[in-house]
UniProtKB/TrEMBL annotation:
Alphabetical list of SMART domains matching this protein: HDc
Coiled coil: none
Annotated segments matching region Disordered: 437-464
HD-GYP domain sequence ranges: 240-435
Record-given protein name: Metal-dependent phosphohydrolase
PROSITE patterns (UniProt xref): HD, HD_GYP
Positions of the HD domain: 262-384
Keywords: Membrane, Transmembrane, Transmembrane helix
Keyword Calcium assigned: no
InterPro entries from the UniProt entry: Cyclic_di-GMP/3'3'-cGAMP_PDE, HD/PDEase_dom, HD_domain, HD_GYP_dom, HDIG_dom
One Pfam family in the UniProt entry: HD_5
PANTHER family per UniProt: CYCLIC DI-GMP PHOSPHODIESTERASE TM_0186-RELATED, LIPOPROTEIN
Annotated organism of origin: Streptomyces graminofaciens
Length: 464
């Protein structure tokens, strides 16, 4: 506990004190203690779900927090009794980080306050009678108010602990791309939690309605089975997504180790590709795949001899042909990765040109896949605006002017205009991608600008 700042410990103590006050019974309000005990045991069991063999040795973070049970308690019980449902499960929950005891106490107090607020909002709007009465649709209004109260309390408390224990500034404007929303200790917490909690709230409302129905509590417990399965599927999705990200990171790191001149280049091409995708109105799933395409566009360099990538002086025609094989090498490497989808075509065709003079297939116009046309623009833009050991970065305006000059012959004008619009709104901040210590003024010639051929948008020759 010594590593926790004093102000953070005082904040936790105040929250715990507030939770104890909320647990005080209300006068003239009798709670069904058997229901409190049943829900508390059920929630405690759900907090242990990470140990279930069906999930695996360790479930992803958040799998064990079953808000439907807590919100069902808020819909069924008076505020103090509803708040009590969260305490045993939170105190017995599995905690990975130290100080474990303080974290359990904090979680128990935080959830108790959130459930108390949700129950109070629900009761204040007549939700208790609406759940049990014939006019069921009206129950959605107090239930919605309870969800909002629950999310608001969690947001306020989480933001406070982030500010005091983690040192996150209360308000901070994002510097990414030069602009961005105001962020900080509370930034985005409410918006991110509202959707999932609303879904859990609907499940909790179903539990409460069945609980008060002639079918009784046993029928209410059946709601948890599909909810659990849904959470397990969601966890599997995130596990798979994490594996995808790890695969891509490993490939990019391998390219960066082999060709130091492109260090950081792949990530920036991925980001520029996503900016173009958003301007084109692509949905989030396609935009994410396009980002993967930008990140992996040069992965085929793993198949090119290192001596060619780092060779000083001009390349021979034979050496140029070897380097021009890198899109095909890259496609062979990623074609078996099913989640990449359209990104695989971008890896193969990102050096095609609209006039048919590109490689490896000499495609023309709309024969070139859309993702490849996007990555080609993003690739050239980052090459021109990045400072490396062999050249200084061009100003963004000069790079865009060059892209517009080459639009129609080398680049798709639609993609160029999309990038211009995105940069006009978001800005761009290139960084040094070569190793520190390089002499910027030395103008060491990289392989990408030593290949004999037609001039490209980067001011050199046809880049590999």
């Amino acid at each position: 506990m010594g590593s926790v700042p004093a102000w953070a410990r005082a904040y936790v103590a105040c929250v715990v004190l507030g939770a104890l006050v909320c647990l005080a019974p209300l006068p003239d309000v009798r709670a069904p203690w058997w229901a409190v005990a049943l829900l508390a045991v059920l929630y405690a069991a759900c907090e242990q779900i990470t140990r279930c063999p069906f999930v695996g040795h360790r479930a992803p973070k958040g799998m064990g927090t079953f808000f439907p049970v807590l919100l069902a308690g808020a819909f069924l019980l008076p505020p103090p009794a509803a708040a009590l449902v969260a305490v045993p499960g939170a105190l017995l929950a599995r905690v990975e980080q130290r100080p474990r005891r303080l974290r359990r106490i904090w979680r128990a107090a935080q959830l108790a306050l959130a459930v108390w607020a949700a129950s109070w909002a629900h009761w204040a709007l007549g939700g208790r009678d609406a759940v049990a009465g014939p006019d069921f649709p009206y129950a959605l209004l107090p239930a919605g108010a309870a969800v909002l109260a629950f999310c608001a309390v969690l947001t306020v408390l989480d933001g406070g602990i982030r500010a005091l224990a983690m040192g996150v500034p209360p308000l901070e404007r994002s510097r990414e791309w030069g602009r961005g929303p105001v962020r900080g200790a509370w930034g985005g917490l409410f918006a991110r939690s509202l959707g999932p909690v609303a879904v859990h709230g609907l499940a909790g409302l179903m539990m409460a309605v069945l609980w008060r129905s002639p079918y009784g509590p046993v029928a209410a417990l059946l709601v948890l089975l599909p909810m659990y399965v849904s959470c397990w599927v969601f966890a599997q999705y995130h596990r798979e997504r994490a594996a995808h990200q790890a695969t891509i990171r490993a490939l990019v790191q391998a390219v960066d180790i082999k060709d130091g001149y492109t260090r950081g280049h792949s990530e920036r091409v991925g980001q520029a590709s996503m900016m173009i995708a958003r301007e084109l109105g692509m949905d989030d799933e396609r935009a994410e795949v396009l980002r993967f395409a930008g990140i992996l566009h040069d992965v085929g360099k793993l198949g090119v001899p290192t001596r060619l990538l780092r060779k000083d002086g001009p390349l021979t025609p034979e050496e140029r042909r070897v380097i021009e094989l890198h899109p095909e090498y890259g496609h062979e490497m990623v074609r078996g990765i099913s989640f990449l989808g359209e990104a695989r075509a971008a890896v193969l065709h990102h050096h095609e040109r609209l006039d048919g003079s590109g490689y490896p297939c000499g495609l023309m116009g709309n024969q070139i896949p859309e993702f490849a046309r996007v990555v080609a623009v993003a690739d050239a833009f980052d090459a021109m605006t990045s400072t490396r050991s062999y050249s200084r970065a061009r100003p963004v305006a000069a790079a865009l002017e060059e892209l517009e000059r080459c639009a129609g012959a080398q680049f798709d004008p639609v993609m160029v205009r999309a990038l211009v619009r995105a940069l006009d709104r978001c800005g761009w901040h290139p960084t040094v991608t070569a190793e520190a210590g390089g002499n910027v003024s030395a103008q060491r010639t990289p392989p990408a600008e030593r290949i004999v051929g037609q001039p490209n948008a980067t001011g050199g020759r046809a880049a590999p």
